[in-house]
From TrEMBL:
Residue ranges of every copy of the N-acetyltransferase domain listed in the record: 11-172
Keyword Acyltransferase attributed: yes
Enzyme Commission no: 2.3.-.-
Highest classification ranks of the organism: Bacteria, Bacillati, Actinomycetota, Actinomycetes, Kitasatosporales
Species annotation: Streptomyces mauvecolor
Protein name: GNAT family N-acetyltransferase
Amino acid sequence: MLPVTVQADRLALHELTRASAAELQDGGDGGWEWAPGGPHEGSRFAAGKMLAGMETGRHRDGWGAYVMVRTEDDRAIGGIGFHGPPEDGRVEIGYDLAESARGQGYATESVRALTAWALAQPDVETVYATTDEDNTASQRVLERAGFRRIGDTPRPIGGREAQHLFERNRFEPNRFEQNRD
């Protein structure tokens, strides 16, 4: 199957192929020209998770890592994607941006577009995300994309801080249109 591409207003979200994921994981550019400050370590980590899913047979086309490509200059500016295929009607989304692309609404635009794509799939009712307690920028992205905070995840013993949990449900009104930048 061909990799999925999701169009957003100013961006195209291109699902990684096996080759591009391997190159990103190994420190390369994955076949894209990146904006300054990219690719972020999160994109490299996501590429590795996608490859691991391919090797174990857990990966499903469409439910992996994507690269955000700005249409005005064809530069990759960040990564977005899913932490795996949907389970019990739920799928987790994550994202990162090159520092030079932050503060311009690209993350919000990407989250909206990929969330809409996911919620249009028959096996997804809810898209969710977690953020560190102190990552207010990411929390604002999710809120502008129509997600609502529903609580916190527990603090792991000896691990990272508790995380805020956000979700967007297929059956809720399309609140993100009210929250446009």
